Amino acid sequence: MYLQTMDSMKQLIVLFTVLLLPIFGSGQVLDPDISINAERLEPTQQSILQNLETDLEEYITSYDYTEDTYGTVVPFILQIYIQQASESGSDVTFTAQLMITNGGDQRYFDKGWEFPYNTGQVLQHEVYSPLTSVVDFYAYLVLAGEVDTYGKLAGTQYYNAASEIANQARTSGYNKGWRDRITRLDDLKNHRDLRMLKYTFFDAYWDYQESKIKDAKIGFNDAIRLVQEILGKNLQDKYTKMFLNGQAENFAWLAAKLEDAEALRTLAELNPKNKETYNSYLQ
Fold this sequence. Notes:
Layout (H helix, E strand, L loop, with lengths): L1 H17 L10 E9 L5 H6 L3 H10 L11 E16 L2 E11 L5 E10 L15 H16 L8 H15 L7 H12 L2 H18 L3 H21 L4 H20 L3 H10 L4 H6 L3
Parallel strand pairs: 1-2
Antiparallel strand pairs: 2-3, 3-4
Helix pairs in contact: 4-5, 5-6, 7-8, 7-9, 8-10, 9-10
């Protein structure tokens, strides 16, 4: 009974993740969760930001970032840490750090964000803004990483959309932090092995769900081979490690279902942070 209960719990964890995968037929949605920490500021400066959380959430939910019909909800969590505010007349410019995550296998830290903002400021799409364009940039990065799991290099169009924003930033008066953002974008977009790993793994998962066991085994073996190739070149590959950390339970679950103990041992060796998870499926 205990083993059956544990297996059911693990299946529920996998099912929760899979609910974020494509179900064709309706529009794709970013589900924003925004928090702003401005405790370093004076009370009068904090009051300027009192409506920004809800304004940004409405800004995100009211816009179609993609015309594709994937019918999936993608968590988009932004944690904004305001470092300081500088005032010049009626203008206020904020310096901030930003944590972006999908709550799973994507997590980015931006430590160089600067933007002007005043209470009641209208937030507009498709117009470059030091505030909203950084939000849009990371929205497209998260979408790209998500859509890469749906098809081979399928997230390219969203990486390209992020690149267009970065190009606009080059000529703006607020270009702080954009060198690092562009480097991050290039690292993600050009990491073809990792992008293929994402697709290959989830394609194998869906093959298993559809009882295509032979295809699932072939695909899963390809995914493990890609993990070995990537980490064989660079054991500290941060974006691959991020993906494995976010999907460790799913990798372990599928390996167990395919009765691939060797894959579990390989993952435990290459991704020691989650060794306990992999070993739990060997028992």
